[in-house]
Amino acid sequence: MDTNRVLNTATKAGKIMLENGGETYRVEETMIRISLALGVKSIDVYATPTVIILSAKDQNNRNHSTLQRTYGISFNLDKISQINHLSRSIEMKHLNIDDFEKEIDIIEHKKGYSNKLTTVASALAAGFFTLLFNGNIKDFFCALLIGAIIKTTTIFLSKFSVYGFFINLVGGMEAAGIALFLYKINLCSHYDKAIIGSIMLLVPGLSITNAIRDTINGDLVSSVTRTMEAIFTAVAIAVGTGMMFKIWFGLFGGIHL
Amino acid sequence: MILATFYSFLSSLCFAFIFNIRGKNILIASIGGSLSWLIYLIIQNVHGSNTVSLFVAAFVVSIYSEVMARVFRSPVTTYTICGIIPLVPGSGMYDTMFQTISGNISKATLAGLQTLTGAGAIAIAMVMVSSLCRLIFYKKKQAH
After folding, report:
1. Residues with Cβ < 8 Å from A76, sequence gap 6 or more?
2. Domain extents for chain A?
3. Least CB-CB distance to A192: which of B21, B94, B130?
4. What is the per-residue pLDDT across A29-48, written as a single tens digit (0 to 9) for each?
5. Alpha-carbon dihedral sign for residues B113, B104, A169, A137
6. What mean pLDDT is predicted for residues B64-83?
7. How confident is the model at residue A95, as a pLDDT?
8. Cβ pair B89, B118 in contact under 8 A
9. What CA–CA distance (Å, rounded) separates B72 from A74?
10. Rounded distance, CA A79 to CA B20, Å?
11. How many CB atoms lie within 10 A of CB B120?
12. pLDDT at A39
């Protein structure tokens, strides 16, 4: 058995999980399960949202270690589910390292839903949230437009690896700007409902969920990091929307004009 | 109320696509979203307090997610995220921002505090449910 190979594969699996929004304890648990099932003698893993450190002993009591930096977060909960499943099935199906590497490769290169589909989903999500918060049918169509535009810019800006703070700031500005504009030309009857519905797209739901779950499990570094991430996102959205309102007030002296 | 539940079902469904959930999990996750909003509305009609309604709704939807995760063998997050999304206090955030911009500091503080308590209620409900689940399953493991 090649310990280096096992560790590399385990790190790869951990990286995929962490970068697609997995909880810290799940990443650590999965990596330990994979390594032990593939024949490493003992192993210790430390994962935070930005780094995975892994140290293991092989049969001859020699230490091996890897360090993997992870970047950014995309949302693909399906990949987490699949790797979780795969790691549990090593023992049941008696997979060896070759099969496992192949499976991980397949999961890594699996594409998520296409950009078109997620844009449509975002637009509809914004629209239905507007209806949920008592907007009317006019607001629904405004939110559709805003949701689609927010998602398009998010996809566009993510290509340049811009920081999340800026993306959310721009998203908030767009939401407020377009809603106020549509309100002014009388295409939207409650600008506040349309804005609330569309900023729900940017709200850090996954960071909050993961932060809470990390806190329960005692992964304090990860929980603090993710809480800060959530707070920063919320502040960015508020600042973006607020800036747009201020500019609008400055230009037109008020909303009702 | 039924219409609102339907809307929250649809918005959770869209969020399931945004988070790349696949297969039958999409449906299960979006039912969680409509469940949370239905319970939120019911409790708000009965009790009247926003924080209590958020707490109970988050509590119920967390139990639902934990059960479904064990039945269908998927990570709990898959179901929690779509269930919690309608409850996230986005309108409170907007309100806080708007009052701050308009210069009503006392109203802004009130809205900010309400937003924080709402978020806190959701967080505490989730913590309680997953800790309880751990207790229950720990006992089961020992019994076997």
Report:
1. A20, A21, A112, B19, B20
2. 3-109, 115-252
3. B94
4. 999 988 888 888 889 999 99
5. positive
6. 89
7. 80
8. yes
9. 24
10. 9
11. 13
12. 83
Q: Can you give the residue ranges of every domain in chain B?
A: 2-143
Q: For residue A246, count other CB atoms closer than 10 A to its CB.
A: 12
| Yes or no, beta carbons of B20 and A76 under 8 Å apart | yes
Separation between Cα atoms, residue B65 and residue B63, nearest integer Å: 5
Q: What is the pLDDT, as a whole number, of residue A77?
A: 87
Decide: A80 and A26 in contact? Cβ < 8 Å.
yes
Q: How far is CA A101 from the centre of its chain?
A: 25
Query: What separation in angstroms does the CA of B68 have from each of A165, A207, A236, B74, B139?
Result: 34, 21, 34, 8, 20
pTM for the model: 0.87
Both tokens of residue A81?
């589910």
Residue B124's Cβ-side half-sphere holds a number of Cα atoms within 13 Å equal to 11
Residues of chain A under the 70 pLDDT cut: 255-257
Is A131 an interface residue toward B (CB < 8 Å)? Answer: yes
Provide the β-strand partners of residue A57: A42, A63
Residue B18 is nearest to which of A22, A121, A196, comparing CB atoms?
Answer: A121
Q: Is residue B144 predicted with pLDDT exceeding 70? A: no
C-alpha span between A58 and A76 (Å, rounded): 33
Question: Mean pLDDT, to the nearest integer, of B36-61?
Answer: 92
> How are beta strands A42-48 and A63-69 bridged, if at all?
unpaired
pLDDT band for B142, please (50, 70, 90 cuts): low
CA distance B138 to chain A (A): 14
State the residue for tokens 């979006």: B30
Task: Decide the pairing of beta strands A51-57 and A42-48.
Answer: antiparallel
pLDDT digits (tens, 9 = 90+) for A179-223: 999 998 888 888 889 999 999 998 888 888 889 889 888 889 999
Chain B residues with CB under 8 Å of A253 CB are none
Rounded distance between C-alpha atoms, residue B98 and residue A236, angstroms: 14
- Shortest distance between the Cα of A123 and any Cα of chain B, in A, equals 9
What pLDDT, on a 0 to 100 scale, did the predictor assign at position B61? 94
